[in-house]
Structure formats: structure tokens, C-alpha cells
Amino acid sequence: MQWPNFIRHAEGGSVKRLGESMARAVLVALISAVAIRAPMRAQVPAAAPQIKAVTVSEGVELHYVEMGKGEPVVFVHGSLSDGGFWNPQLAPFAEKYHVIAYSRRYNPPNKNKPQADYSAVTDADDLAGLIEKLHLGRTNVIGHSYGAYTALFLAVRHPELVCSLVVAEAPAMPLLAYLPGDEAELGKKALADIRAHMEAPMKAAFKKGDQNAGVGAFINYLSGDPGAWSKWPEEARRETLANAHEWDVMLTEGELFPDLKPEAVRKIKVPTLLLSGSKTFEFLRLIDEELSRLLPHNQRIVLPGATHHMFYEQPEKCRSIILEFLQGK
């Protein structure tokens, strides 16, 4: 069995003013590998590896693929996605590394039963279990979006398992409450707006069992258009909902944005690459700049012309930057 050719979508967002006297606007958008506009399909490698499964804790099985030999590199995907997000990167990285791409707990093709308190913290503990069960030792971890958030928690909770990090635009929302100087009020207002106008409606819908309305609240908020979700092609909506089960659990029995305090980030000592797009959301810029202030051993590279979808837009450039980082760490 091989990774399915899952539908992907390109994100967008809307600018929301946070006050009449404020000159700066913030794009209040949650980050994931989800569409606001046209659907895109992830490429499948010509010789896709076979899917394997490993039990990482009692009752939790994760599906993964692996290729190559050498130092371990684990890829972690974002929300409304799955391990197939990384298909185009596997073979090139496998020329020099032992690469593993897996699907997080409630993403296809996993069939795990819902458990309470699910969040990026749970995902980090699952990832630690995968690293331990596969006997990988200290591992290089590459995360995009919510997968990058997971990678940060892995480094905080299981530092002995991490060799280096690549953090590509993590939606580390709680850090917005701790921004310094002139950006302090901006960050707090952005966080409050997201909590009230995106997260709360999503929770309300999912708690009613209305997955369609929950995802719709997310898409409509990002788009700045209350009817955006209904304008999507039926196939795009169907494919997106197929990857939404993680939110069935997270938004009813868990936490979308578990707390991550600055002092915890400061304790991450491994070499870290922060990968950002120059045309990403202002919201992400604020978080990435805060991470660059907090992480003691980081370098930040901003890709000219790239958005949050840097791995679609500039896959070769992303790969060359990461390979150079891994070789020089």
C-alpha cells in the first residue's frame, strides 16, 4: 500500500484592523495545509515506499514511510493534512539521510480512537514514542505549520531525542501574549480576536457534531468572507473534511493551542532553523520573530516571494536550505 494522492489547498487570509488608532493591521489566520482558493495535489514519488505502522503507546498506532540510510530525519505535517504532504521531499532527502514521514494521531490512514486532552503536546509525545520505537536515537525533526508546533513541544518535553529542528511557520499562538515593546498590545489583540472569532465558533460547531460548520467557520474566518466555505467546489470540501477528524477530537476533548511560554522556548538548546516566507501572514511574522529572539541557537531564513506554502511554491529552495543547515549544524 502506498500513500494516497491527497488533495491539498492553498491558504489565504484577511486583514483585520485591531483598533482605529493602530496603523498596522494583522492577518488573523490559523496556519495549516488547507485551501482558501484552488486545490492542489501533492506529488507522489515515482517509487513510493510502503506504508508501515508502529504502536507508540497503548492503543495508539501511527502509519509512516521511510527511505534511505544515515542520520534520521523525521517530517511532521500540519493540520487538515497527512504524511503524504512530504512525498516530493522524501527521495531527495533519502540520498543522504534516513527519512521518515508519518501521519499524526488522527490523520489518515490512522484509525485511532478518540482520547481526551488531545493537542500538539499529545502529538509531541506520540512523536517521541515513534522515535523511541524505531530506535532512531537523537533525530533531526522538520515540521511545517502545526507540525512545527509539535516539533517545538517535542524539543521542550523530550530534549534527549532531538538533534536539530527545522521550524517552518509554527502557529505558536500563546507567544502572541508575550511580544515585547511596541508589538505587545498588537500581539494580545490578535490572539484575543482569533480566540473569539475563529476558535470559539469552531469549538461550538464541533461540539455539536457539525464538522462541516466547524471547518466552514475556520475557512470563512481566514477568508474574511462569511460565505467562503460554501463557494468551494464540492470535491474540495469533501477532501478537506476527510482530513478534519483531528479537529473532531481536538476541539471537543482537547486544546487547539496549548500553552507555550517564552521560558520553555529559551530552554531549547539544539540548532534550529526558522524557515519563513516573505509574503506570509503578518501574524506568522510576529511569531517567527519572537521565536528568533527566544531560541538560543537559531538561524532564520526568509524566502523571498514565498507564502506559508513555501514547500509547494519553492520545494527545491526549501530543500537546499534545509540540507545546508543539516550539514552545517
Roughly how many Å is the radius of gyration?
18 Å
CATH superfamily: Alpha/Beta hydrolase fold, catalytic domain
Mean residue pLDDT: 87
Number of helices: 12
Shape: globular
Q: What oligomeric arrangement do these chains adopt?
A: single chain
* CATH fold title: Rossmann fold
Number of domains: 1
Structural class: alpha/beta
Low-confidence stretches: 1-46
Could you say what the CATH architecture is? Answer: 3-Layer(aba) Sandwich
Distance between the termini: 35 Å
Q: What share of the residues lie within helices?
A: 25-40%
How are the elements arranged and paired?
Elements: E1 7-9, E2 15-16, E3 26-27, E4 39-41, E5 52-57, E6 60-67, E7 72-76, H1 87-94, E8 98-102, H2 120-133, E9 139-144, H3 146-157, E10 162-168, H4 184-207, H5 211-223, H6 228-231, H7 234-242, H8 245-253, H9 262-266, E11 272-277, H10 282-294, E12 298-303, H11 310-313, H12 315-328
Parallel strand pairs: 7-8, 7-9, 9-10, 10-11, 11-12
Antiparallel strand pairs: 1-4, 2-3, 5-6, 6-8
Helix pairs in contact: 2-3, 4-5, 4-8
Q: How would you characterize this protein structure?
A:
The strands form 3 sheets. An 8-stranded mixed β-sheet has the order 5-6-8-7-9-10-11-12, sandwiched between helices. It is 39% helix and 18% strand. It contains 12 helices and 12 strands. Helix 2 packs across helix 3. The longest helix has 24 residues. The protein has one domain: Rossmann fold (3-Layer(aba) Sandwich). The protein is α/β, with parallel strands linked by helices.
